[in-house]
Design a protein that fits this description.
alpha+beta, D-Maltodextrin-Binding Protein, domain 2, 4-stranded mixed beta sheet, 27% helix
């Protein structure tokens, strides 16, 4: 389950748990024998621990996490990166269909080769600085320039991307343009209706080259002794719907723990 899914489902889990708690004001069922009524009344759901609703712990196998969205390869890393970085789109946690994230809408030209994306004006990095169309452009160009990037070829549909990625073109010739702070345009070599779906992947998220700030609902608090701690990103545009304050990922080679 992805971290992005967890943040959206925590509230639903809390509501469901409340709905399962019997109401103490309900009268006893006259059809049940007195002994059965007593047993039923004592079989109440224990109260929810508020601490557990705010802090979530995950067990994973021991391996060094690559927290660079451009080069990460493990599925467990992709799940973590989904919480740390966000792009123009994200996967709906239930349907897995693309939904708006940092983008609020997009338009496609009649020939289907020019795409124009509008960004949220309240999108911010974890340090409070605004996320702009230029940040998106630089992140995608950095992805194309990264030799170890597994997913960079998916941007080859953009004019000049293949040439730049393979060392035969210039950075400035890639048809990714920041028109202003909230408008990004790209020109394609062929129609690509699937583009919003692939842009959901963390590889195409907005990040800075030094990975010093985060664009998703969480940021890295610490990573040491096989323990990764993520904390809620208060600057995230949808922080009000991030229902977990902290996620702790404990790495262990204990088979029983990993099977839990």
């Amino acid at each position: 389950m992805s971290i992005n899914t967890l943040k959206k489902l925590t509230a639903l889990a809390a509501v469901a748990a409340v709905c399962l708690i019997p109401l103490s004001a309900d009268p006893a069922d006259p059809e049940l024998p007195e002994e059965e009524q007593s047993q039923e009344q004592n079989n109440e759901t224990p109260p929810i621990n508020p601490e557990l609703q705010q802090n979530f712990t995950i067990i994973d196998a021991v391996h060094a996490y690559d927290l660079n969205p451009h080069t990460a390869a493990y599925s467990s890393e992709a799940q973590i990166l989904t919480g740390l970085y966000e792009g123009l789109f994200s996967y709906d946690p239930v349907s897995l269909e693309p939904q708006y994230a940092i983008a609020t809408n997009y338009r496609i030209s009649r020939d289907k080769l020019r795409w124009s994306f509008t960004l949220r004006d309240n999108a911010k990095f974890s340090d409070g600085s605004p996320i702009t169309a230029q940040n998106v452009r630089e992140a995608w160009l950095d992805l194309l320039a990264e030799p170890g990037a597994s997913y960079s070829s998916l941007l080859d549909v953009i004019q000049g991307a293949y040439e730049y990625r393979t060392g035969n073109g210039k950075r400035e010739d890639v048809a990714i343009k920041a028109v202003n702070d909230t408008t990004l345009t790209i020109h394609l070599v062929r129609p690509a209706s699937y583009l919003p779906r692939i842009l959901c992947h963390s590889a195409f998220a907005v990040c800075k080259k030094d990975l010093s700030v985060f664009s998703g609902p969480f940021s890295v608090e610490s990573y040491k002794n096989n323990t990764l701690v993520l904390k809620k990103n208060g600057s995230y545009w949808d922080a009000a719907n991030t229902h977990l304050n902290q996620i702790t990922i404990l790495q262990s080679d204990n088979t029983a723990e990993n099977a839990y």
